[in-house]
Structures are given as structure tokens and as C-alpha cells.
Design goal:
Blueprint lengths: L4 E5 L3 H14 L4 E6 L2 H11 L3 E5 L7 H8 L4 E6 L2 H9 L4 E4 L4 H14 L7 H15 L9 E6 L2 E6 L3 E7 L2 E6 L2 E5 L3 H7 L5 E5 L2 E4 L3 E7 L2 E6 L5 E4 L11
Helix pairs in contact: 2-3, 3-6, 4-6
Length: 253
Amino acid sequence: MKAPTAVVADDEPMLRAQLVDSLAALWPELRIVGEAAHGEEAVRKVASERPDVVFLDIEMPGLNGLQAAAQIKGLAHVVFITAYHQYAVEAFERGAIDYVLKPASEARLSATIERLKGRIGQPLPSDETMQAVLARLAAVLGKPDATRLRWIQASVGAQIRLIPVDDVMFFQSDLKYTRVITRDGESLIRKPLKELLDELDPAQFWQVHRATIVNSAAIAHVVREDDRLTIALKQGAERIEVSRSFTHLFKSM
């Protein structure tokens, strides 16, 4: 019997590598015949390799996952990779498309693999079904998420600063306060880390320690020293420790 094949598309190299490693461990028969860093590359890889399955990150620069899926329909089974539960649920409710939340958990990925094993070799969803699912997802994606935190009001001496969350490199608990570290320095807020986690965009801000949330866009690289992982930032000399509970975020390293 021919081995099943897949293309994996995600613009975040570490998360793409983590998914490839997890698929190798949980589905050893699967052959990864291509990887892509953006939607255009994913479409080209699928057209040339003709895989059974394509894993598509929804949020990619240029051609996003939904746009890529619209071009890929009829060529492969689609699995969306997403950090947003609401998008995943919208896709999954129709049953034509599966999803994996990132960073991919073993339990969720195993469930997806079992469904894919049953679908491979079966007819692909019709164009009408795919168009309906993608249109529904596009409508959800187009709605701004008013619950996401966009600004932080922080104390700097006797002043209150309004800081865009995109400027924050990391948050760290410090006794009664939470430190807010930006390129310009340090501020303090009284909001606990748990509340911040509920309000920040999970695709951008990752908890890497019980006392630390890091902006993934601020990560330069991760250093492994024996059994310890530390994060080096693109700016600033401070190093961030990754606790054992969160090393799965960097499993591919």
C-alpha cells in the first residue's frame, strides 16, 4: 500500500518543525513531501507533489491559509493549523476540514490523524462544500476580536504610560506587580499574569514559565544548556528561562 503523504505550511519555522516532528512520532507511515513558509509556496508544493494531506497555517503573510485552501481544493485533504479556537470550531463543524491548535498537543493531533486515516483514499469534499466552509471562516476572520488586549496602562515613576502590546517583549510576575518590558525600558502594572493570558493574543504571546509571558515576535533564538532552555531576545541582554512545563513549545530544537 502506498504511504500517505503530506505538505506542511506554517510561516513560523519552530512551530512548523515541531509539527513535522510530532507527525513523525505519531504517524510514522506519513511521508512529509514538502514544507512551505507561506501560502503561495504551499500551493506550488501541493500542485507539484500531489500529497494526500496539506497542513495549512491560517495566519500566513501574503496568501493566507484560507486563500491557499481555496486554490488547493480538489487536490488534497486540508487541515488548518490555528491558534484560535473559534476559527477551528468554525472549520470543524462542517466536517469537511480538520484542524490542529498550535502549539500542537499530542491528544489533539492524534485525534486528527485518526480522522485523516479514514479520509485518505475517500473522495475529497466537493467544491461547493469547501467554498461554504471557507466563506464561513473568512467571515469569522474578518470580525475584529474586541476582547484582545491592545494597550497596557503602566506606571513609570509618577507617570502612567499607554503602551501598545505589540511593543512589549515580555511580561514577568514580580511580587504584587507584573513587569512590562519593552525596548524602551521597564514599567509596572497590577494586573496578574493569569488575567493577561486571558486577554492577550495566544498566537503572539506565549507563556514559557509560570511567571513569564513572552512576545513570540521578540524571540531571536532559544539556547539549550543541558536540560534547560533559555530565550534570547532580539533586543536587550536579558535571558528568559523556559520551564519544563512549556518546553513543548520548542520541541523541535
